[in-house]
Fold this sequence. Notes:
The chain is an alpha/beta fold and about 425 residues long. The protein is about 30% helix and about 25% strand. It contains twelve helices and 20 strands. A hairpin with an 8-residue loop joins β4 (about 100-105) and β5. The site of magnesium ion (MG) has 5 residues, from loops.
Amino acid sequence: MGIVVQKYGGSSLADADAIKRVARRIVEVKKSGHDVVVAVSAMGDTTDDLLDLAAAVTPLPPARELDMLQSAGERISMALVAMAISDLGYTARSFTGSQAGVITDAQHGKAKIIDVTPGRVTQAIGEGHIVIVAGFQGVSQDTKEITTLGRGGSDTTAVALAAALEADVCEIYTDVDGVFTADPRIVPSARKLDRVSYEEMLELAACGAKILHLRCVEYGRRYGIPIHVRSSFSQLEGTWVVSDTGLQGPEETTMEQPIIAGVAHDRSEAKITVVGVPDKVGEAARIFEALADAQINLDMIVQNVSAAATSLTDISFTLPRTDGQVAMTALARIQAEVGYDKLLYDDKIGKVSLIGAGMRSHPGITSKFFAALASAGVNIGMISTSEIRISVVVDENAVDDAVRATHTAFDLDADEVEAVVYGGTGR
Ligand code: ASP
Ligand code: MG
């Protein structure tokens, strides 16, 4: 039988008992005849605690040292899980990301995996061991430094290992039973999705659903790895993230996919408005070039029609709040050159997104969405769309109401409460 790759998140590894429970689960799979490779996250809120510690030591920790610090969290988990497995009479070998061959680029804090060379992992499997790999970390090919993959990056470690090992499936164990139609912490009546396509999951993850790391879904899609998101606290079948065609089993080929996959929200963004930009060729290019040079990832961009009298226009865009300071500084530097009037910064915003592949073929989704927001008294700040998504920026305090109203308007509420949040602090 083939290789099963599993990933256990921090809330599934919160303390010694949790680690023993996870070890028993892993051993069950081994007993059933599979080879098992497990990627682990740091225990509980360890990563946040480590970051708090760093902030207490210095306001500006060097990126290299932050990665050394954060990567320690996953090392603790991997060793403890391996010990718990040996206590059950099975042998396990733990490896750091670097030892497991997770090769990344050189960007500290948000490194991308560029290759996985799992020689030591396959050797250990061949010798009959269960393999435990520290998630969220790798080693840069160029600098030889330890890197981390960005918050939530252990998911990506798991899927990258699954691809490199040609595993049958990558199981992502978390503290809820799967991917829900909305965050159960906000919408208790959210429904579990049995299946969701890679592209819908990509939009959900990009729009703030924290259940899966965005790049893990990209990886899964590229290599065709089925991802099974499920709870480590129950035996329930979770959500399968699969290709579009995989959504229709043979008996279901005549059935339509649901129109809407879910409602996602994101409170991690800020909005910058560049006020009074001269309406001339090349101005937007100059502004966005400055932001690109500063390595800022932009999300929504809106340019107003310029006022006829003044020939001036406003350009607004959203970006991660953590990049706010850097972006403002980069833009301030080109004020004279561009000749804009001033900059406005607003981090009291939230983004609410409606996602579903069925949008392509069903008219009227947008009007229903906006009607739901209106009836909940939610004012819309910005709008952006893709083929299978509509997103709006709203006031930070209106996010919960907007999510609930939208969820109800699209009949996504379950009859009985299905969503159980088993653990985690949601931090
Ligand atoms: N421990 C890291 C984090 O908390 C990585 C992960 O959990 O996937 O972000
Ligand atoms: Mg974590």
